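Possible regression after last week's pipeline update?

I re-ran a chain I had predicted before the update to compare outputs. Posting the input and the new output here so someone can diff against the archived version. Not blocking, just want to make sure nothing changed silently.
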Amino acid sequence: MKDIMEAPAVLETPVQLKKEKYPVKKVLIICSKGKLEDVYAALVMTNGALMEGMEAKMFFTFFGLEAITKKHANHLHTGTTGNPAMMPGVPDMIKGLPGLETLASYMMKREMDKLEIPSVTEFLEIIEASGGEIYACKLAVEMFHLKKEDLVPEVKGIITVGDMYALAEGEGTQIIFI
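New output (post-update):
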């Protein structure tokens, strides 16, 4: 058994250990939800990865496709029902009243504007310009009767799930599902 006196003088943090032993080199972020807060989580994490020098790819599937359609990208809403952090203590029945989601979305976008957070389409442009890649799920595109022309120009391709997994190949890749 190692003598306690031989322990290093400065203990390394889990973050330091992870960076040294298991460096993240690439992230694949899967966005499956179309609510404002979910889409922005994916956009912010992708942009952050690119800023840290990582390779970053995004895969939008099912309702996440809303974020990359020309028609809906800048018109996403904040979810009010089913979210315990949204208006704590207020029952979902109340959170679902007509107009409440619109009001919550307006308030969220107003706060984002104050912080100069880019719109969804601006964020997608920034991600592409920074070397990130954006893909749409072939199955979801077909299921929702979309065409390539319906998607924002930053979408590099419409690919299968198998193709998406191929994007994640390589050591040091993390897959993040939102």
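Follow-up from reviewer: compared with the archived run. The chain has a mean pLDDT of 87. Marking as no regression found.
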